[in-house]
Structures are given as structure tokens and as C-alpha cells.
Amino acid sequence: xxxxxxxxxCNDDGIDAEGLHALAASMKxxxxxxxxxxxxxxxGMGHAMTLGVPLRIGTYRKNNRFFGHTVSGTPVDCIKxxxxxxxxxxxxxxxxxxxxxxxxxxxxLYSGTVGAALEGRIQHIPSLAFSLTTYENADFTYAAKxxxxxxxxxxxxxxxxxxxxxxxxxxIAERDIQGVVVTRQGRSRWAEDTIERDDMHGNPYYWLSGTxxxxxxxxxxxxxxxxxxxxxxxxxxxxxxxxxxLGTLRKWKLNK
Length: 256
Fold this sequence. Notes:
nine-stranded mixed beta sheet
């Protein structure tokens, strides 16, 4: 790492999102910042990338000053395009967020915020994903402060190989935060509620929605921890192999 670290900031809520602007402002207190974000919201994209459709790179201005670059694609597209066509040098750190809504338990699989960070780690760059656990009345003050604290630590210490940190922060005042816990991805899952309606021509269409059901009961699990007003820091691996299952499957003797 250089004396002045270069930090790439991305998100999945789009270039206009308040959480992105709060995160970029916080990171500027640590070093040089480049913002590359989707031109439109791309929540729930996971690790999706755009194939067969051209991507467009644009610029975004805030208060008549250049703020960052836009990409007409997913969060993963943003990381790929940033590293291949926008940046002159590889950044020292990638931070993604601050997302509206938690990315815990099974939600982690769907998250474009986490997807961007995982893509950064695939490219051998330490990466962090930050999420605020609300969809309304968001206050990013403490989340941005904690993001800066953790980013500073990672810039100094690094991260384990093939690992990102997914951080979920309660939407409460700093004085009400109970602490910070290192957690595992919980088992809580969505109870789906697909709403069917008819358009003006009588053809059906569908809205996907649902409620996250708590299936965890320990501060070692991310969704439970945030509901107890703790910041949850969860290490997420690029390698999705279930290593405990390898021995069992090898006993199956799946030879042709």
C-alpha cells in the first residue's frame, strides 16, 4: 500500500444513492477515492454481469463538480470496467455500499453490494461491503464512520486470502450501538410473497416481495446480531465449496 491509498467506491443502489455519497466522503479522509457506480439502481443482482449488451461509461457531477463514473450495468460490471478501462492503477481497497437494507443470511446471496466486493477479491484486491439495516429514514452518519474505521484497519492489516468482509450496521444512533461482533452467515430466509395482478389488457404480471424470517438465535449469527443492535462483521469466502461434504461425496465412488 502507498502512503496515500487509492480506494475504489461502488454500490448497487446507483450513483444517486445517499449511502454511496456518504461512503465516498468518509473514504476521502483516508486517501484518494474513485467512484464507479451503476447509472441506475441494480439491487438484488448478486454476482450478475452483463453479456450480449454493450456497456456505456458516463460521468456524474454533484454540485457542478465531477463526482464519479457511471456504468450502464451491474455492480460487478462496475468493478470489471473500473479495473480494465477507468483506473490507471489497481486500487489498494474496494468498498461497496452503503446499501439500503441489510445483507445478512440468505440475503447475502442476492446482494449486488456483496457481489461487487466479491468481484474485487477475485481480482486480488481487499474488498469490503457495507449495509445499513433499513429501507427508510436512513442515517448513514455512524455507518460511514465505522466504514472508515474498518477500512483503515484493513489497509494496515490486509485480509485473509479469498475473503471479503460483509458488514451490517443497525440504523440507530452511535450511542445505542451495543458493540461489534464477528459473525457467520445466518440461516434466516425469506418467506416469499408473490403478488399477481393484471395489466390493462388483462394479462397477468407479478411483484416479488416477502419477509425475512428470523431463524437464528445467537450473536454469532449476523441477522440475530443486528436485531440486538450490534454491528455484524461477517467474513465471506469466494470459494463456495462445502469442504465438509467432499469426503462424503468421494465415498460415493462416482467413477464412470
